[in-house]
Design a protein that fits this description.
single chain
Length: 174
């Protein structure tokens, strides 16, 4: 198993990168740049050293729950590529804020209630959607000023879909 270790400012988007299963951001606050294909090629563990780590994509990206390619729980910020279609499945569990900065293209964020807690989705122009699966099983707030546990801050959203069994708990849209 091979691990690619990156630090703040590293930009591998123009590099031919292969045979690395794991990605590690070695410094707290590491901000790196890569293509969506490069990110999805990491089939092992994606880890980050501390708070405020982020990945900026230079092209369209689809980060799904297939394998381990969901957004790494230790990476707090994902900046999506402009003018293209992007899909991100949040990988956090409410322990740290996970932010997705939308692009000028079509952006879709997939989340469960657990991964949406404390998350921030700042949509941009284009058609932007939030899909929460597994239903709402506790008090939860979605809105422009929602922050903290049990809340997801969302701005500029065009579509909201919630699927799965929901109980009689409160969902607040602000």
């Amino acid at each position: 198993t091979n691990t690619l270790a990156l630090i703040t400012g590293d930009n591998i988007s123009g590099a031919a990168v292969s045979s690395f299963q794991n990605l590690t951001l070695n410094a707290a606050g590491a901000l790196v740049t890569m293509t969506g294909g490069q990110y999805n090629a990491f089939t092992g563990t994606i880890t980050a050293a501390g708070a405020a780590d982020g990945v900026t994509f230079t092209d369209g990206v689809t980060i799904t729950t297939t394998g381990v390619t969901a957004a790494g729980a230790g990476i707090e910020t994902y900046a999506l590529a402009a003018g293209t279609t992007n899909a991100v499945t949040l990988g956090g569990t409410g322990l740290a804020t996970q932010t997705v900065a939308g692009s000028t293209g079509t952006d879709v964020v997939y989340a469960t209630l657990a991964s949406a807690t404390k998350a921030v989705f700042t949509a941009n122009t284009g058609t932007d959607s939030l899909n929460i699966t597994g239903g709402v099983t506790g008090a939860f707030e979605i809105g422009t000023g929602a922050t903290g546990a049990g809340k997801m801050q969302v701005t500029g959203l065009e579509n909201l879909t919630i699927t799965g069994a929901s109980t009689a708990n409160a969902l607040t849209l602000t």
